[in-house]
Structure formats: C-alpha cells, structure tokens
Design brief:
This protein is an alpha/beta fold and 256 residues long. The protein has 8 helices and 7 strands, in the order E-H-E-H-E-H-E-H-E-H-E-H-E-H-H. The N terminus is likely disordered.
Length: 256
C-alpha cells in the first residue's frame, strides 16, 4: 500500500458503517486516525476498540453541516496531531423518497449533509493541501448517483452532485499536487441500507467493502468502485438512451 502509516488520516462519518470499518482498517495498518461524527460516545467506543491495534484513533466529534465548526476542527486536529495527509469525506445519509412521498424537508436534510457537509470539509482540506503542495482527499458518493432510480430521487440527486463536483475539481487539484479520489460504493450492509425495503443486488459485507475501499485509496486511479459487477451494470445503465433506461427502471418501482 502507498499509504504511509505515519500519515494523519481524517475520516468523517466514522461512528458507524463503512467509515467506522475504514478507521479500524487504517489503525490496523498503524496510522493515526482522527475520527469524526456527531456521536461522541460512539467515537469513544471506536477509539477503545482500536487500543490493541498498531495505530491509534482520536475521537473528533463534529457536525459537518456547520462550516465554522469544521474549520475549527481541522485547525485543532492539525495543531495537535500534525498535517492531515489523507482525508476521507464519508459523512452522509439516505432517505428513501419517490413521487408519492417526496418531501422538501427530507430533501433539504440530504442536501445539507451529503452535499454541503462534504463541501464544508472539502474547503479547508483543499486550501491546506494546496498550500503544502500535496495530500489526498477521498470523497464518498454512490453508484446511485449514476442515474435516477425509483425511491432515490433525493439521495441520487445529492450523490450525482458530489460526483460532478469531484470530476470538475480533479484536474485542477492534480495540477497543484493534490490527489482527489471519488468513491462510489454499491450496496453495503450498514444501518443505511437497512432502511431499504427492496432486494439489493450484489450486497457486500461491511468488512469486504472496507478492504476494497482501503485498497483503492492506496492507488492513483480517480474512481474507486465496489462491488465491481454492480458498478459495471450501473455504468451501462447510465450509457443507455432514456427509452431503454426507463423501460428498465419502471420495473424497479417498489410495490406499495
């Protein structure tokens, strides 16, 4: 792996799911991990679980939707631990939503966390890494951002926006010595996917997904995808003419 175990790794959304598993994977490799999420107790439990590992996890409670709090958190982490070499912007949530239950409040919640929360973290990390002439940032989106899917009207909107954001920023950051990666997971068994009431193709177990995530971060390619078979299906759907796409997605409408 190209990750240096001496790097300071900052992971948001680290209290549950894939963010938590990734934090433990980095600690297993000997890294110093700053783990952020809103739940202080969950972060402390995560740090305690890592006590027997070669690395260490430092709880850094944070609400990523608060831009000023994010700036202060990054400032404090770098003052106390050193420059962040790898940032994994993973905080996000999912609210199933379609035509029958379209809800502005829910949509706003997703935009504030999935899009603005990501931007709030991206901003201080980009400025610091550009000034240092190096660093890595990984932004977590989703394969759901490839095309519109039933019940994913709001979630897919936010993830499509994050994908577009990263595609736009990658060439500029690369020219300044900063590596930007986009992470597009499919279905992974987490508390978020437990909300789904439909069959989830190629569902990955959490540890397998975290390992694929970790391996991808050690390479130079822009996009990290898993599971690969589902990702290729979604890439194919994205390339179809709308007539064919809608012929397929109509069959995915959940029965109510």
């Amino acid at each position: 792996m190209s990750q240096d175990s001496r790097d300071i790794v900052w992971i948001t959304g680290a209290s549950t799911g894939i963010g938590r598993a990734l934090a433990l994977r980095y600690a297993k490799a000997g890294a110093t991990v700053a783990a952020s999420a809103r739940g202080k107790e969950a972060l402390e439990a995560l740090a305690a679980e890592a006590e027997t590992l070669p690395g260490v996890i430092h709880p850094a409670p944070l609400d990523v939707t608060d831009a000023e709090a994010v700036e202060a958190c990054v400032e404090e982490l770098e003052a106390g631990l050193g420059p962040i070499g790898q940032a994994v912007l993973n905080a996000g949530t999912h609210i199933p939503m379609g035509a029958d239950d379209f809800d502005l409040k829910g949509l706003r919640t997703l935009v504030e966390l999935n899009v603005m929360g990501t931007a709030n973290c991206l901003t201080p990390m980009m400025s610091r890494m550009i000034a240092r002439g190096g660093g890595r940032i990984a932004v977590v989106a989703s394969l759901a951002g490839y095309c519109g899917l039933p019940s994913g009207a709001a979630y897919g909107l936010t993830k499509a926006g994050v994908i577009n954001l990263c595609e736009a920023l990658r060439p500029e950051l690369e020219a300044k010595g900063v590596a930007l990666q986009l992470v597009n997971p499919g279905f992974v068994r987490t508390p978020l996917t437990d909300k789904n009431d439909f069959p989830m193709p190629f569902l990955m177990e959490l540890d397998d997904a975290a390992e694929a995530f970790y391996r991808g971060l050690g390479k130079d390619r822009f996009e990290i995808i898993f599971p690969r078979r589902f990702a290729y299906i979604m890439k194919l759907l994205r390339a179809l003419p709308y007539g064919l796409l809608f012929l397929i997605t109509r069959r995915l409408i959940p029965n109510k």
